[in-house]
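re the bet — no i am not wrong, look at it urself. input seq straight from the record:
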Amino acid sequence: MEKQTITYLELKGTSEEIGRMLGHSPEAKQMYAPAPENFTEETMQEALQLYERYCPGIIEELKGFSEESGIAVKDMAYSWMTYLIPRCCGIALQGSRMKDGHTRIARSYDCTVWTQ
């Protein structure tokens, strides 16, 4: 069985500030994965509408990440993989469910597109 490394971060700030912190990290460039041809501007707008509806703040986080890392939002693996390839797992636990009151968000990248 192959061992995997995970990263656990505790970040504080606005969604955009958190995006900038993530975009400044050494691992940020690993999120670059050019969008496939079928992820058009229209498709990107559909994805952003869903993100806004179900995950308020994620658009600001993506924009902050983009500005800090220099990776276009469309070319972040998260942007198009989450919308076009819904096979990865994600979970969010509201702060009201946690002893410390902090919200937890986790996502696996079972379906990665980049090579080592």
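see?? The CA atoms of residues 9 and 94 lie 17 Å apart. told u. also The chain is about 40% helix and 5% strand. so pay up
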